[in-house]
Amino acid sequence: MHIVATTIAVPVFLDSYRQNLERYGHLRDTRIWVVADRKTPPQSAEYAAEQRKRGLDVVYLDPASQQRWLEPYPDLAAIIPWNSDNRRNIGFLRALEEGCKVLVSIDDDNFCIPESDFYAGHQFTGARVWREVIQSENGWYNICDELILDPPARAVARGFPHAMRNGSVRSRAMETIPVVAKAGLWLGDPDVDAATRLAFPLKATDTRRREIALDLGTWSPINTQNTSVARRAIPAYYYVRMLEDLPGARLDRYGDIWSGYFLTRCAQHLGEYIGIGSPVVSHLRNSHDLLADLRAEIWGMIVTPHLIELLRTAELSGGDYSSAARSLARALRSRADDLESCVRLPGVGNYVRRIGQYLDTWVDVCEHIGSLDGTRRG
Questions:
Q1: How many folded domains does the chain comprise?
Q2: Cβ-count burial of 375 within 10 angstroms (0-12 exposed, 13-18 middle, 19+ buried)?
Q3: Is 14 part of a structural domain of the chain?
Q4: pTM: predicted TM-score of the whole model, two decimal places
Q5: Span 119-141, pLDDT tens digits
Q6: Statement: residue 244 has pLDDT above 80
Q7: CA quadruple 207, 212, 213, 214: dihedral sign
């Protein structure tokens, strides 16, 4: 298993993963990639080296090593900006190159808790498993409904369309199904949008402690906090580039959400499922300016429902994730103007077209790396 995180701070989260992996006997089965940025302090490398001495297989990717690794891929290097969580993509590709079977994405404020075996919660991603399958009348499920919140409230996950918040939910059946990706849950700060955080503070004190999967055709925001993806699906798991200036607007804080929606659409096309449940981590959220977060999220909140409609109605083709992602990229490019006419945000059509181009570049690199002999560890 390979775990990837970006950070612009000292990666103190590593100690909790080392302790958890050691406690449950998975220290030798796991590698962690820490992707630094230009803002990351020099002592971060020292901290990672100290954890390595204590038995954790951690690889620290400093800016210079990232630049060297990207040299054979100039088209990709051109679309991964500095000072951006988009650097996470380099960690994903390094894990792919090293032969990972399961890729896990975490944030640097996600900490393991002793009660939850982190490795075990993600180890069956990519396999056929026995799960309760969830569906809803409007095709949407709120992942935050799996949390016990204090104070009691019905909060929705960041990236959940506002108009879809009242659909009734039912369990279809217990089935053995292929789960290609899995969203682990969080205690502490749930991943809700800035508008919710400004309205009232919330704390997740527990979860419903069950393992479920979203039915084909059922959607939910899937972020990059404690989320695992099977190797075969990495070509459809491109972390979308944000921070693109548009006339009078700026899109940010939805790169992971759109990434999850791209993956979900490709998985649905291929008849595979998204799981929700363990492992549980503690989300000790880094300090944020909530008004700045709201300003960064507002256009994502407006554009996302229209993007989802584009994805939902796109005709995908192909029998693997590379082919499905390429057909999704074509749909983004060909229907970008339709999306702009719905949103009425000048420039968003060209932005969505660029995302289609970025996704094609991503698949190109994934296919090249996947053709290499990555046999080091799973």
A1: 1
A2: exposed
A3: yes
A4: 0.96
A5: 999 999 999 999 999 999 899 99
A6: no
A7: negative
- Spatial separation of the C-alpha atoms in residues 57 and 291, rounded to whole Å: 38
29 backbone dihedrals φ, ψ, rounded to 5°:
-100, 5
For 79, the token pair is 């679309």
Is residue 377 domain-resident?
A: no
Residue 375 lies in a domain: no
- Amino acid residing at 273: Y
Select from 112, 108, 116 the least CA-distant residue to 12. 108
Q: Does residue 171 contact residue 132 with C-beta atoms inside 8 Å?
A: yes
**Residue 376, domain member (yes or no):** no
3-state per-residue secondary structure call for the chain: CEEEEECCCCCCHHHHHHHHHHHCCCHHHCEEEEECCCCCCCHHHHHHHHHHHCCCCEEEECHHHHHHHHCCCHHHHCCCCCCCHHHHHHHHHHHHHCCCCEEEECCCCEEECCCCCHHHHHCCCCCEEEEEEEEECCCECCHHHHEEEECCCCCCECCCCHHHCCCCEEEEEEEEEEEEEEEEEEEECCCECHHHHHHCCCEEEEECCCCEEECCCCECCCCCCCEEEEHHHHHHCCCCCCCEEECCEEECCCHHHHHHHHHHHHHHHCCCEEEEEEEEEEECCCCCCHHHHHHHHHHHHHHHHHHHHHHHHCCCCCCCHHHHHHHHHHHHHHCHHHHHHHHCCCCHHHHHHHHHHHHHHHHHHHHHHHCCCCCCCC
Q: Give the model confidence (pLDDT) of 51-99 as tens digits.
A: 999 999 999 999 999 999 999 999 999 999 999 999 999 999 999 999 9
